[in-house]
Amino acid sequence: MNTKPDGQSGDILLEMRDIVIDGFSDEKWNPIIKGVDLTLRRGEVLGLIGESGAGKSTLGLAGMGFVRPGCRITGGSIMFDGIDLRTLSEREKHGLWGSRIAYVAQSAAAAFNPAHRLIDQTVEATVTHGLQNDSAAKSDAVKLFEALQLPDPENIGNRYPHQVSGGQLQRVMTAMAMSPRPDLIIFDEPTTALDVTTQVEVLLSMRKIVEEFNTAAIYITHDLAVVAQMADVIKVLRYGEEVEEADTRKMLSAPEQEYTKSLWSVRLLEKKQSPSDDIVLSIDGVDAAYGKSVRVLHDVNIKVPRGRTVAIVGESGSGKSTTARVITGLLPPSAGQVIFNGESLPPQLKDRSKEQLQKIQMIYQMADTAMNPRQTVAEIIGRPLEFYHGLRGRDRQKRTLELLELIELDESFYDRLPSELSGGQKQRVCIARALAAEPDIIICDEVTSALDQIVQEGILKLLLRLQEEHGITYLFITHDIATVEAISDEIVVMYMGEVVEQGPKQEVLNPPYPDYTKLLLSSVPEMDPDWLTNLLDAR
Amino acid sequence: MSVSNKGYSAADEVGRVFTRRTRMQRIWIDLKKAPPTAIFGMLVIFTYLFVAVFAPLIAPYGEAEIFPQPYAPWGGEHLLGTDQIGRDVLSRLIYGARNTIGIALATTFLSFLIGGGLGLIAAINRSWLDQLLSRAVDVLMAIPSLIFALMLLSVFGSSIGSLILIIAVLDSTRVFRLTRSVAVSVVVMDFVEAARLRGEGLGWIMRREILPNIMPPLVAEFGLRFSFVFLIIASLSFLGVGIQPPTADWGSMVRESASLIQFAQYDLKAGLTPLLPAGAIALITVAVNYVVDWFLHKTSGLKDEH
Q1: Which chain B positions have a beta carbon within 8 Å of A462's beta carbon?
Q2: What is the ipTM for the molecules in this complex?
């Protein structure tokens, strides 16, 4: 089956020396990677981690001799199994890609052609490179599907991409990468877009298959807990330079650099829990549906105490965000009501008074799309000041600068555009916009899930501080249990549009659990290289 | 930037901060990199605009001043000769720039006001109003616009006012479609929802939230629509229902001197006379297209391969 020479495990497969990569922006070439070395042995999994913009994807892709448009490799050497990738022509590189080097992208949904059956796409590279004929490759693909624990491996390949779930699609993509039995696979954030419960299954099957075929892999991610499960060696990047590289166990137990330590300490945020009986917002028996038939919420009851944080957790499709839409009035409920400060809120947005709108503010998951790209920070924060409080001119400018200070940004950000901010800074500006209205309650819809961990911690700290100083109530929607542990007072667990469990944090996070809560909690990766193995044994 | 190991601070995060440049500096950088076709196009447009604005100063004679000799040959007192009733062709060409460009510009502005405004409302509203407007536009677009315009002009009479209004309404259908389709993808963005939750009115959402984000395709479309409007007006004038004499206009000039082309075998210059206004029409259409092409390439995010 395997036609290539079987390399000895432990031989050096990929060696990159002193790599320098430039990217073109603002009319000039700027270095993205500044002289990084990388060595990968056969059968070894290397985890590349770092914040966004650290250059981890750029470096990972350079490992297959590829650079994105607008980038160029200006220095260093890339030796793949004795072949110098930098001197190869495009044509020769195409011969390697898809046969000896494979790539698994972040979004499987975008990487598959919706018009072709999965099995045809899985074996395409293997067949066009002439490694196997069509029928042999297909029967091999079925074995891969089986190894990846896909349901009904015989027939799942006959489906189209939209007929399988996101987690299954990501596994089919792994099978596609595995089909030509490559020497090297590059995983580029393959589980970032998945729910925790799905992520576990995908991680398990990926690790299994990489071990089984002794394939070398580069695993790019910003999630430390995930990389701890997958990688033998971890390399930390920052600003295009290597911070530290070590064996996974050593890296987790005894990181050397300050920066690495700060990455590791993120999850140590803790909040004192204090009960409160003053209910600011309560949702009473709400049913909601999209259109006439698609019922999304069923008899949802949630109480939010003033000055506290209530977290709503659940996987995608559980109705978390729909609950937020009902509260804000974007989706009028078909039954039940929302009571805010003792009075029932009109179900429709247009029937609500300016004051009611002002008191409920929202922060979105994607700060990128939540800010108008053509407005400066001053306009974004200043508009609610003008709209709700009638501040103009100098008063407005003064208050805007105060708010900027509150979110730990200085005056230099005043006239920047959103595109000139980092992810964390964008989210901070969104927080300032919500604060500008002086609300009673802020709904945070997955506000940290698009951010790097160290940035997440900064945002969460800010939110906690603002709550202490200004007594703001948060309704925190998330699928990330670690975040919930860090900041919430009460937790609501939702599943399939219903509330499974609701109560103080300590109660919900400790046994006894309802079945779904147990599954959800056990699926959250921990910073322990044995976690996945133990979980497998336990289930 | 040096690698700092001092832990985390929000202001230290790496954003893509661009060098602060004034608008003039940015325009200058863009102009320096413009391809020759775009520079040619801009030169032509500026020349036309200059001629249109300063027509009375440049033209040797009045717009409808009649001289004793009709069909005077080129040269002498009348550089490009005179027409069938003895008006100076050069002067009429110069005044024609003013009239034709002015009317085409006014028409295009009006059609953007109608089509753009309704398109934005339809995109934000997305209910029965959107359906009503979109289907009405479909019906209007199903009728060939030149023939429809001919018919309407013969019903309402061809004054400059009705000419502008009729062509603007017919042309606004295309602007409506474009505006609606680009605005729909902006309307679903979170920042528009945020503005709604804030309680902003329709006017604010249209002008401040959506319009700035769909400007590039609209500006490009403005150039293209201007070219088409220009051609339609010229065609209508050529057919005799557009701009009426004594107002100088290129379309009607072509019609009035069209028969001269048969005399090219006896006097080449006489044969060229009807081609002058026709060439003027062609030149500005091509020039506008060059500039629009360049603008679209610049704003569509298609970066040159480095």
Answers
A1: 10
A2: 0.76
CA A236 to centroid of chain Cα atoms: 18
CB pairs under 8 A between A and B: 107
CB–CB of B11 and A364 under 8 A?
A: no
Taking CB atoms and an 8 Å limit, are A258 and B7 in contact across chains?
yes
| Residue B11: C-alpha distances to residues A332, A363, B133, B269 (Å) | 40, 20, 48, 72
Shortest distance, CA A330 to any CA of chain B (angstroms) = 8
**CA distances for A273 relative to A457, A491, B174, angstroms:** 19, 12, 60
Rounded to the nearest integer, the mean pLDDT of chain A is 85
Which chain B residue is nearest to residue A330, measuring alpha carbons? Answer: B197
| CA-based nearest distance B126→chain A, Å | 15
pLDDT at B186 over 80: yes
Looking at residue B286, its pLDDT comes to: 94
By the 10 Å C-beta count (0-12 exposed, 13-18 middle, 19+ buried), B47 is classed as middle
Cβ distance B11 to A410 less than 8 Å, yes or no, reads yes
What is the predicted pLDDT for the residue at B132?
A: 94
Q: Which two tokens stand for residue B14?
A: 């790496």
Exposure on the CB side of residue B271, measured as CA atoms within 13 A: 8
Whether pLDDT at A28 is above 80: no
Distance CA A370, CA A387 (A): 18
Tell me the backbone φ, ψ of residue B212, rounded to 5 degrees: -60, -25
The beta-carbon neighbor of A369 closest among B1, B189, B196 is: B189
- Interface check A435 vs B, CB under 8 A: no
Q: Does residue A442 sit at the B interface (CB-CB below 8 Å)?
A: no
Of A423-437, B11-25, B201-215, the range with the lowest mean pLDDT is: B11-25
Q: Which of A47, A23, A42 is nearest to A33 (CA)?
A: A23
Q: pTM of this prediction?
A: 0.78
Mean pLDDT value across residues B157-171: 90
The mean pLDDT of B89-93, rounded to a whole number, is: 89
